[in-house]
Amino acid sequence: MNRPATVVEVSRCDADRVRLSRVGAGGFTLVEILIVVVILGILAAMVIPSFAGAVTGSRQQSFVSSVKAIESAAAIYTAKTGLYLEDSSSGSMPAGFDAYLDPSEFTNGTPIGGVWDFEFDSWGITSAFGVHFDGTGETQDEAYMAEIDTIFDDGELTTGGFQQLASDRFYYIIED
Asked: With 35 labelled, which of 2, 18, 120, 121 sits at a CA distance of 20 to 30 A?
């Protein structure tokens, strides 16, 4: 049952050819790599817009949260002092309000661009605060701000608790 061993002579040239074919068999061709890169590019192009929408939504929600926090602090200020906060220049915190709100929350600008601003007895309202797009940081248009107004109330910037007071001013109304 023992078979005699077969001797096969392989020339050096044949051995090199066998070795080269084995090395190349495990790799990828340039065309295969290019196809994978194109597929990844297409997938990335489909995913990136959804991330951009998520960033916009989170910035709007952050702005709404900030407005609610400032509104709560302003209500506490009014309850303790019996006064509405004074008018301040855009980007500046009203005097005495730093005891109710961390100044960095106010002076660093809003999450959507622009700067915070308080109004008192102006623009036809008694007291309000909001964002003034004064050229500081990013500026948002009326459609973007109407989306934010939808979160607050009616989505209409001329009525409700969040209104557009001027072309570059969008405010939460404390008292009409």
From this structure: 18
